[in-house]
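hiii so um. not sure if this is the right channel but i have a protein structure encoded as tokens and i wanna go backwards to a sequence. like what aa goes where. can anyone help
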């Protein structure tokens, strides 16, 4: 049992003090060229490394102190042999007389380094001797650090191709054999740590083993740096030997780390050419090994390799990389690790899909195959609620959108919507927003009804409630943003062929009508305006194109619009429905469809009567009705009279007198349309204006009763401006004397009103300046204005 805390710190301090004490005497002996004493004190110094009391982390501190001293010892040995004081062979044998095996082997490795540099013996023989000798230390921690020292001092002395220590033709194999043998022995020691000590300290031992892993992995790094390890040698010797050791050790930590090491240290090209061998090892690993991370890293590296140069892509095709990776994942996910969490399996599919999109972007069947495999893994399960798993699904579904920049390509993948079906409602909405944002970003035009059907099935999470319980949980701002994104999407649906465009609109209507009262106010308006755009497009075509055999006629579209707007009444949203009816009436006017336009106006008036109760909403609505009706030129005399009569009647019935007044004088424009064939009924214009004056006068009197002073005269000034408009347009009923009388009335009112209104004063002054300007301008208009005295 390893100690903790203060005891360990104390033992480390004692060990460091022992090293420093003996190093001092060793340095003194070195300075005196006293080899015998130098060896004696170095043995005593290295004996401090025999301790079993320290954790690996603390032992490393002690080891580094000794390592620094050994480098100085090595320089001394080199100088001594160079001077001829002692031959390197004698020195090699002399250090083997050290009393304890651990100091003896450290000194042997140090002298071995000098021996190889002297070239008095082949490097391969010295290295073989050293690696065999090190077997004498079987204590895991001490053995690992000793072999790490051997790896460190030998890495620049391997008999590699091009190295100064290169030997015969088989030289590279000797270098490889040395490194692999050292790696194998270190791995055995590392794994043995797992089995030593009581079970209750297992977690602590695993943590300590994790701290030591880089000592083992260093061998694989050295192996990857050997120049002579070409693809053939890697394929035939290195990889099989290393994988054999990895698989046979049957240790979870070791297998995960070493597989990761192999992927990280060796070139991507080697991985591609040995893919079958490498992937074959995965199912043989322990069931608890985190294979998904290692396999994902392998696919990510291969993906980046494919993206690095177009020239390497034929290699991927040649080795059938996709099918090998796909089969390997199938074996790992479905067979070898049946208990792998869903998030792990999806992570693998995300990496495989990224690989596929980079290497085979043209193979949609491969992309769909990956999505299909994911569906198979998810089938039979409830909707995913694990946030990590849903995040990976979103990454999986987003990858094709980012690659192709075209939702149309994603719609061709049969398994795409099936994967989305496994998302919980919240994430389904997130994914739907991602899809819409992709369409907006790339300004993708969806041009067929079939594509629209597929798209709206994909984003159904935004279009209708997927379950009834979640309505109250939705954040209002988020909901508005989601519905606005759907509204923007509707404007991206377009086809120049009226027939197909009508099918698209019917498809959209079918989906949005199911959205419920909360969504309709957001989704119905864009549908209505898209339909009206189609109406105008058809109207703008040549007459011979529109025939009875064509179903996409304005009449047919207006029928659909009527039914669509009616759905808003269930919300209820009468003000919005009224606005849309008026828009449709105006479009029907442009198409010269009087009965249709009349019907839309009728619906607008019914809504006004029955549904619009708020006084402010009534004011807004009546002005909209008047403004739209004024622009209509399709109505015959009877229909127009009926509608204008209704409008003026409703105007006079508004709650507040000022609102009544403004609506009534606005109605005057219904009887004077300033167009070539427009209505010009001067008498009825004057009647409206006089009626407005009476209402303004009544408003003044009411203000006088309630406030003790006459109300503002701004209504009279507004009416004066209307009189001036019709006076200039040539209405014979509006004469200069009428204008003069009104100006005098306003002046009188303003004088009798004790409290002046600055805005009204400015308004009246501005009006008088206008009259003065017209008088001074001269010409026909100047003559008309001349009789008016201001």
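sure thing!! here u go:
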């Amino acid at each position: 049992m390893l100690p903790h805390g203060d005891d360990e710190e104390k033992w480390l301090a004692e060990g460091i003090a022992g090293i420093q004490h003996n190093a001092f005497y060793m340095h003194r002996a070195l300075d005196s060229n006293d080899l015998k004493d130098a060896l004696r004190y170095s043995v005593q110094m290295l004996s401090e490394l025999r301790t079993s009391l320290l954790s690996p982390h603390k032992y490393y501190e002690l080891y580094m102190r000794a390592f620094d001293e050994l480098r100085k010892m090595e320089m001394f040995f080199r100088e001594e042999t160079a001077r001829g004081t002692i031959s390197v062979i004698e020195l090699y044998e002399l250090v083997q007389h050290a009393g304890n095996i651990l100091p003896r082997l450290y000194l042997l490795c140090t002298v071995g380094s000098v021996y190889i540099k002297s070239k008095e013996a082949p490097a391969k023989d010295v290295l073989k001797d050293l690696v065999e000798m090190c077997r004498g230390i079987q204590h895991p921690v001490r053995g690992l650090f000793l072999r790490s020292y051997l790896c460190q001092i030998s890495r620049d002395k391997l008999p590699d191709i091009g190295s100064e220590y290169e030997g015969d033709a088989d030289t590279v194999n000797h270098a490889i054999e040395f490194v692999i043998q050292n790696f194998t022995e270190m791995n055995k020691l590392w794994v043995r740590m797992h089995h030593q000590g009581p079970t209750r300290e297992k977690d602590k031992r695993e943590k300590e083993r994790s701290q030591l892993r880089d000592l083992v992995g260093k061998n694989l790094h050295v192996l990857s740096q050997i120049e002579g390890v070409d693809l053939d040698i890697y394929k035939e010797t290195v990889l099989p030997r290393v994988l054999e050791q990895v698989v046979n050790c049957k240790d979870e930590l070791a297998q995960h780390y070493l597989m990761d090491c192999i992927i990280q240290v060796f070139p991507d090209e080697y991985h591609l050419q040995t893919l079958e061998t490498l992937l074959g090892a995965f199912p043989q690993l322990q069931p608890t090994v985190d294979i998904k991370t290692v396999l994902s890293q392998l696919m990510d590296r291969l993906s980046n390799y494919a993206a690095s140069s177009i020239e390497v892509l034929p290699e991927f095709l040649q080795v059938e990389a996709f099918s090998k990776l796909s089969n390997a994942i199938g074996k790992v996910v479905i067979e070898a690790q049946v208990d792998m969490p869903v998030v792990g399996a999806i992570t693998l599919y995300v990496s495989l899909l990224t690989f596929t999109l980079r290497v085979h972007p043209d193979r949609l069947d491969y992309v769909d195959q990956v999505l299909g495999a994911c569906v198979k893994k998810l089938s039979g399960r409830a909707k995913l609620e694990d946030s990590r798993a849903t995040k990976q699904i979103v990454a999986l579904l987003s990858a094709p959108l980012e690659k192709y920049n075209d939702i149309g390509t994603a719609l061709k993948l049969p398994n795409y919507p099936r994967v989305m079906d496994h998302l919980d409602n919240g994430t389904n909405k997130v994914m739907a927003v991602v899809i819409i944002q992709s369409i907006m970003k790339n300004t993708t035009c969806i041009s067929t009804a079939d594509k629209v059907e597929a798209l709206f099935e994909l984003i159904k999470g935004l279009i209708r409630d997927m379950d009834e319980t979640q309505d109250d949980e939705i954040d209002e701002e988020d909901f508005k943003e989601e519905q606005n994104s759907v509204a923007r999407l509707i404007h991206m649906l377009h086809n120049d062929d009226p027939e197909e465009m009508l099918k698209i609109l019917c498809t959209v209507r079918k989906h949005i009508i199911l959205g419920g009262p909360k969504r309709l106010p957001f989704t119905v308006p864009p549908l209505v305006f898209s339909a009206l755009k189609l109406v105008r497009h058809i109207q703008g075509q040549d007459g011979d194109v529109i025939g009875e055999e064509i179903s996409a006629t304005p009449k047919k579209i207006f029928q659909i619009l009527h039914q669509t707007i009616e759905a808003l009444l269930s919300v209820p949203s009468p003000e919005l429905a009224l606005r849309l009816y008026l828009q449709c009436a105006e479009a029907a006017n442009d198409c010269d469809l009087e009965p249709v336009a009349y019907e839309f106006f009728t619906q607008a008036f019914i809504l006004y009567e029955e549904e619009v109760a708020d006084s402010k909403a009534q004011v807004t609505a009546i002005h909209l009705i008047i403004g739209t009706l004024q622009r209509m030129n399709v109505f015959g005399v009877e229909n127009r009279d009926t509608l204008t009569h209704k409008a003026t009647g409703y105007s006079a019935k508004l709650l507040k007198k000022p609102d009544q007044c403004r609506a009534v004088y606005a109605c005057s424009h219904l009887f004077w349309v300033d167009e070539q064939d427009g209505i010009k009924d001067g008498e009825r214009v004057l009647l409206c204006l006089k009626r407005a004056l009476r209402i303004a006068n009544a408003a003044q009197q009411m203000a006088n009763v309630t406030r003790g002073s006459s109300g503002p005269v701004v209504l009279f000034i507004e009416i004066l401006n209307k009189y001036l408009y019709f006076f200039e347009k040539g209405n014979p009923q509006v004469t200069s004397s009428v204008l003069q009388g009104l100006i005098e009335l306003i002046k009188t009112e303003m004088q009798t009103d004790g409290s002046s209104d600055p805005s009204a004063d400015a308004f009246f002054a501005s009006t008088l300046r206008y009259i003065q300007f017209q008088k001074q301008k001269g010409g026909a208009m100047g003559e008309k204005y001349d009789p008016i005295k201001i």
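oh and The chain has 38 helices and no strands.
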